[in-house]
Design goal:
- With 229 residues, this protein is of the alpha+beta class.
- The chain has two domains: 1-77; 95-225, Mannose-Binding Protein A, Chain A, CATH 3.10.100.10.
- Helices cover 43% and strands 16% of the residues.
- It has helices spanning 2-77, 112-121, 132-144; strands at 95-97, 100-110, 125-126, 152-157, 199-202, 210-213, 219-225.
- The longest helix is centred in the N-terminal third of the chain and has 76 residues, at 2-77.
């Protein structure tokens, strides 16, 4: 009996030891899983931090570019004067923006030709933006009046004389800053559309700098009531 009891105790001890070993193994596996989860969390955090850092760098670059563009406006045209100076009387729906009678059409969109005819039907013409000060106050007017969610046709195009843009009155469109942007998607200096993109848009996604696009795309339009000479 004593021998059987000793054997039974030994077996029980072995079972207990095996259970303890299994428990330790389970704890070890749990620890490894927790370490893996922590590593993944740290990797995701580092990835998120990197994305945020890249976004901030891009934002800083864009702000720097816009500051440089505004500095070019000031350098080329002087500090913009008070928009109230040189105010002209404009008949509705046209309003004065830096001495220009402007109507911003938001209820209708169409091709460049369609929207030019629309301006003419209102007794005006598709707008000519050839002054840095005027461009500054026009963009400010769009933002101040809740009109900065759309992109707008303006009066320049290069159909028939690729690469040389002209306004509807026959005068040539100025190139470079502060008028032309670097494109809303590719960061390439505009104009860059080749023979398929011949009309000028002031695009909300490009902060209302000029870029060339297909004349057959639908955009809103900015019209100008020409002053009588």
């Amino acid at each position: 009996m004593a021998t059987f009891s000793a054997i039974l105790l030994s077996v029980l001890a072995l079972v207990t030891a095996a259970q303890e070993i299994q428990t330790l193994q389970d704890l070890s596996n749990t620890l490894l899983l927790n370490q893996l989860a922590m590593s993944n969390m740290l990797a995701e955090r580092d990835s998120g931090t990197r994305v945020i850092r890249e976004w901030l760098n891009d934002l800083q670059s864009n702000i720097t570019s816009e500051i440089a563009a505004l500095q070019n406006v000031v350098k080329a045209n002087g500090v913009p004067q008070d928009a109230g100076k040189g105010v002209v009387e404009c008949m509705a729906p046209f309003v004065d923006v830096y001495g220009h009678c402007i109507f911003v059409e938001t209820a209708l969109t169409g091709t460049w030709q369609t929207m030019r005819r629309h301006c003419q039907q209102k007794g005006g013409e598709i707008v000519k933006v050839d002054c840095g000060n005027f461009m500054y106050y026009l963009v400010r007017y769009l933002h101040s009046n809740g009109l900065a969610k759309l992109s707008y046709w303006v009066g320049g195009r290069d159909e028939g004389h690729e690469g040389s843009f002209f306004w509807t009155d026959g005068t040539q469109v100025k190139m470079g800053t502060p008028f032309w942007g670097d494109g809303p998607n590719d960061n390439i200096q505009e104009p860059d559309g080749g023979t398929n993109q011949n009309c000028i848009v002031m695009a909300t996604e490009d902060h209302y700098f000029f870029f060339d696009d297909s004349c057959n795309i639908s955009y809103a339009v900015i019209c100008e009531k020409l002053k009588l000479s």
